[in-house]
Design goal:
The protein is an alpha/beta fold. It contains 7 helices and 13 strands. Helix 3 links the parallel strand 7 and strand 8. Helix 2 runs parallel beside helix 7. The protein is elongated. The protein binds S-adenosyl-L-homocysteine.
Length: about 250
């Protein structure tokens, strides 16, 4: 089997054998100046649609780089359909949350402005850049879909009725998350995890959510977790119970 190149890049363009692919300016800088790679060096490419491909550098300039696509390393495969709807946190914890949620296999990141949300400026481009970097590093074949921040009520207005919501609730009635997920095995519907801001959800939001179909309040233990910890802990529990954690990383077995 072909050795996997250490360098992996996400690109927008289609991928097929023999194609020439133009890198972005940042990627050209990363390949040529940071990694000091040059013509002939191997790079793995993925675009979220066509699987993962072995490519090699054709030429690198100061602001550009061209690659030639050689052969397919991995076919595109289905990935868990799990959204994270979260009250955004401050800049550094948000970078961390986006990177780690991507590693944990989230399929969409949806920042929700709640009544007690303090952070209101959320840069989608920055979240996307973090998601791409984490997807490249963790060998995902996709990058999670990243949305602009919207009020929670607007997100719920357009909510797809078949998508089940795991509401992480530190107070009130809630089933321990592992108990709930054990009971949910075999349910085919798509899922979302919902976490609140550092101040928690307010009562009107909880009332709205309680009336909403397909919402289950779950507990993450006896400690109050920071909003980013709660989101990541819930994602890990879901992946272990209903997601793809029965699989091994590609090419390692
Ligand atoms: N202000 C609240 C804590 C909010 S923690 C208080 O002090 O009581 C931020 C978010 O993380 C919460 O809205 C919830 O979604 C999640 N969370 C934190 N700890 C949790 C726990 N033990 N169980 C379930 N969800 C939790």
């Amino acid at each position: 089997m072909t050795d996997r190149p250490r360098t992996r890049l996400f690109i927008e363009s289609d991928l097929a054998s023999g194609m020439a692919v133009e890198c972005s300016r940042d990627q050209a800088h990363y390949l040529g100046n940071v990694l000091r790679l040059g013509p002939g060096d191997p790079v793995a490419l993925f675009n979220g649609r066509d699987g993962e491909w072995l490519a090699h550098i054709r030429e690198t300039g100061k602001k550009s780089a061209t690659l030639t696509v050689d052969s397919c390393l991995r076919d595109q495969a289905p990935e868990p359909d799990l959204w994270l709807v979260f009250a955004p946190v401050k800049k550094a914890p948000l970078d961390f949350l986006v990177q780690k949620a991507t590693e944990l296999g989230v399929s969409a990141l949806m920042p929700a402005i709640t009544r007690r949300t303090v952070v209101e400026r959320v840069k989608r481009e920055r979240m996307e850049a973090n998601a791409i970097e984490a997807a490249e590093q963790c060998e995902r074949l996709t990058v999670p879909h990243v949305e602009d921040a919207r009020p929670l009520s607007r997100i719920l207005d357009g909510w797809p009725t078949d998508r089940h919501i795991l509401l992480c609730a530190e107070a009130g009635e809630a089933v321990p998350i592992n108990e709930f997920l054990r009971g949910a095995e075999g349910r085919g519907e798509p899922w979302a995890i919902l976490t609140g801001p550092e101040g928690g959800f307010d009562q009107t939001e909880l009332d709205l959510l309680n009336k909403f179909p397909n919402v289950s309040a779950v507990g993450l233990g006896p400690r109050i977790l920071r909003a980013d910890t709660a989101a990541l802990a819930a994602l890990a529990c879901w992946q272990a119970a209903l997601g793809d954690w029965q699989n091994r990383p590609p090419g390692r077995n």
